[in-house]
Amino acid sequence: MNQFWNQRFAGDDHKYGTAANAFLREQATLLAPASRVLLPGEGEGRNSVWLAGQGHLATAMDSASVGLAKTARWAAANGVAVQTVCADLVDWTPPAASFDAVALIFVHLPSAWRRNAHRRLAAALVPGGWLLLECFHPRQLGRSSGGPRDADMLVSIAQLRGDFRPLCDEHLAWEGEVTLDEGSGHQGPAIVTRWVGRRKAASAAAPAA
User: Fold this and answer.
1) β-pairing, 125-136 with 186-199?
2) How far apart are CA 169 and CA 200, in angstroms?
3) How far apart are CA 90 and CA 94, in angstroms?
């Protein structure tokens, strides 16, 4: 999988554009100034660089070293600093209670790994921290506007609730059609799932296992 994404990010262009994701821009108003934000599966850095430009402390995590190198170059070109972490979400555990927000923007994992990875990421939030997520819905399968061609990697609200509710209170849940304009990789009408949660106080959260 690392080889696939390194090849995809190898060109001079940005596969998903250089503008931050629209849903992230909208929900970023929830963040306190200078929030510590973790962005797993960040790819080429469009969202982390934008967040850094808003004064946040962005950490871009990805398994594709080529994408992270492009993130570093894009950050430097925009006069901001972004921390990068090269790791695989399948087995990477971020430090517990170390981020004010986690932004999962079009990060798709096989169901066998997804719930455990999601709970590890939620556990990285401080109490009251925000989990911001947009992904492709199962009804996206077969559309040409983007996303995995494997139904197992597409996620509904019901599935996200099962993943996150032990650790996060639901703040927003929506699934429906949007029009994407994010580089060559996401173009046109698409069915997406959007979810925002807030990390429960430590005493109220169930174990992440």
Assistant:
1) antiparallel
2) 6
3) 12
Burial class (CB in 10 A: 0-12, 13-18, 19+), 94: buried
pLDDT in tens, 127-173: 999 999 999 999 999 999 999 999 999 999 999 999 999 999 999 99
Q: Which two tokens stand for residue 43?
A: 């790819």
Encoding tokens for residue 25? 């821009």
- Determine the residue type at 184: S
Enter the pTM of the model: 0.93
Place of tokens 């997406």: 192
- With CA atoms as reference, report the closest residue to 46 among 66, 75, 7, 4: 75
Token pair belonging to 65: 């070293």
DSSP per residue, 104-148: EES----HHHHHHHHHHHHHTEEEEEEEEEEEE-GGGTT-SSSS-
> What pLDDT digit, counting tens, does each position of 65-119 carry?
999 999 999 999 999 999 999 999 999 999 999 999 999 999 999 999 999 999 9
Residue 140: both structure tokens together: 């996206």
Contact 167, 92 (CB under 8 A): no
**Token digits for 59?**
């950490």
